[in-house]
Design brief:
Pfam families: HTH_1, LysR_substrate. With 323 residues, this protein is α/β, with parallel strands linked by helices. It is 43% helix and 23% strand. The strands form four sheets. Strands 3, 4, 5, 6, 11, 12 and 13 form a seven-stranded mixed β-sheet that branches.
Length: 323
């Protein structure tokens, strides 16, 4: 027996005073309505209605059941209506997971913009450098940099992540700039200790068709990419920074890209989420909003034209210095 349907039919019949009208109200046949009530009576072992050809009235047991279940059924119906409205209104709690490294330099501005456009959405952001399993951690949407997230979620690529060796103009004025990877040993360098593993990140270089890894001893080491960026901006040393941190400062002239012929693509920033179907509107709206603003957004990486121009400028400066 479908107890919810049977109780709903019973309450509608008692309210309307007719099984036939209750059937029409629920979009079922009169026979189905009558059978549902009879099954409920059989299950409970009591008679719920006095029936005549013209009239339907509650028995004493039926009245007690009606008084007990009607408020609960009203709450249940309201809950179902609220769930249906979540497909029609961008409102409610939205849980988002992202690594700290992407938070301020890339994501936070757009989180603020989304909240301003959709004030009925309560945005709960968890910055976590470990991979977030959306189901286990009850998150609606996640962001990750590197390879595509695993675990059966849907992942959409947004922007590439380049690893760019950078220094401030002040550092270069004091110490010169390395012209080869090997010359980095003669310079003060910054380091990044991965927050999720505690290991010092190796520097990566593209040499021909291969990616070569080097251990570069740091004079200052941090476990926060923004702090490392600040250290490089302050002239403390040369650093290999993610393009989402470095690109705005390179374009403004606060940083100089070095060894650009060896820039590698570390991976990609992805947005990932569960099944496309049956998503609340707030989740779908947020995904569409972030994809529209981040997909191939040149604010966060250097395109090939810029890289060629940067190399030409560096070659020109090197020739001038030699002359």
């Amino acid at each position: 027996m479908n107890e919810i349907r049977a109780i709903t039919t019973f309450v509608r019949a008692a309210t309307l005073g007719s099984l036939r009208r209750a059937a029409v109200d629920q979009g079922i046949s009169p026979q189905a309505a009558s059978q549902a009530v009879m099954q409920l009576e059989k299950e409970l072992g009591v008679r719920l209605f006095h029936r005549t050809t013209r009239k339907l009235s509650l028995t004493e047991e039926g009245q007690r059941l009606f008084d007990s279940v009607k408020p609960a059924l009203s709450i249940f119906s309201s809950a179902l209506d609220e769930a249906r409205r979540s497909k029609e209104e961008a409102g409610g709690l939205l849980r988002v997971s992202a690594p700290r490294a992407l938070g301020m330099p890339m994501l936070w501005t757009y989180f603020e913009q989304f909240q301003q456009l959709h004030p009925n959405v309560q945005l709960e952001v968890q910055f976590d450098d470990h991979f977030t399993d959306l189901v286990t951690d009850r998150a609606d949407v996640g962001f990750r940099g590197g390879p595509p997230p695993s675990g059966g979620s849907i992942a959409r690529p947004l922007v590439p992540i380049q690893l760019i060796v950078c220094a401030s103009p002040e550092y270069i004025a004091r110490n010169g700039a390395p012209r080869t990877i090997d010359e980095l040993d003669q310079h003060r360098c910054t380091g990044y200790r991965r927050a999720n593993t505690g290991k010092l990140a190796q520097w990566q270089f593209q040499i021909g068709d291969e990616i070569v890894y080097r251990d570069v001893p740091p004079v200052i080491c941090v476990n926060d990419t923004e702090m490392e960026t600040q250290a490089v901006l302050s002239g403390l040393g040369i650093g290999q920074l993610g393009s989402f941190n470095a690109t705005p400062h390179i374009r403004s002239g606060r940083l100089v890209a070095l060894l650009t012929q060896h820039i590698t693509e570390y991976g990609t920033v992805y947005i990932y989420y569960g099944h496309r179907t049956e998503q609340p509107l707030r989740v779908k709206t947020f995904i569409d909003f972030m994809v529209a603003r981040l997909a191939d957004n040149r604010a966060f990486f250097l395109d090939p034209v810029e890289l060629r121009a940067t190399r030409a400028v560096r070659r020109g400066r090197a020739a001038s210095e030699r002359g």
